[in-house]
Amino acid sequence: MKKKIINTIAAPAPIGPYNQAVMSGKLLFVSGQIAINPISGNLNLSDIESETKQVMQNIEAILIAADMNFSNVLKSTIFLKDMNNFALINQVYGSYFTSDFPARETVEVSRLPKDVNVEISVIAAS
User: Fold this and answer.
1) Rg (CA), the chain
2) Based on CB atoms within 10 Å of each CB, which residue in 29, 47, 51, 123 is the most buried?
3) CA count, 13 A, side-chain hemisphere, 69
4) Structural contact between residues 56 and 92, judged by C-beta atoms closer than 8 angstroms
5) How far apart are alpha carbons 64 and 19 in whole angstroms?
6) How far apart are CA 112 and CA 63, in angstroms?
7) Strand arrangement of the beta sheet that strand 4-6 belongs to
8) What's the CA gap between 93 and 114, in Å, rounded?
9) What contacts 50, CB < 8 A, 6 or more positions away?
10) Are 61 and 38 in contact (CB under 8 A)?
11) Which of 61, 75, 65, 76 lies closest to 120 in space, CA to CA?
12) pTM metric for this prediction
């Protein structure tokens, strides 16, 4: 099984021993994204909506680097620090999809990298 590494400067560089995404056949596995601005390298934690928007922009940049978009997303996983933010995060997340929504799970966790409030990963197919 061949795999192709997907990396783009339009999304934050990995902060550990992983890649932004890996493609195998027609499947794209996008690593969990947090609200790091790829230009400044700073976290965007001003409010939960802005944080979620930055996460989704990072995912979008990786999808584009793989010649895909949100319509290619089959499944997503959302990790939240506080389930009380679910409605706000869900509103921003949902604005990136128009129909045929992906499968998804949303999980509250005690802590996320760099103490962010939300992390999202996706699996897409071409």
Assistant:
1) 14
2) 51
3) 5
4) yes
5) 15
6) 23
7) 4-6, 21-24, 27-33, 118-125, 73-80, 103-108
8) 21
9) 35, 44
10) yes
11) 76
12) 0.97
Which stretches of the chain score pLDDT less than 50?
none
Structure tokens at 36: 């790091």
Calculate ∠ Cα 10-63-92, nearest 5°. Answer: 85
Q: How far apart are CA 122 and CA 21, in angstroms?
A: 9
Give the phi and the psi of residue 24 in degrees, each rounded to 5.
Answer: -135, 115
Token digits of residue 109 = 């966790």
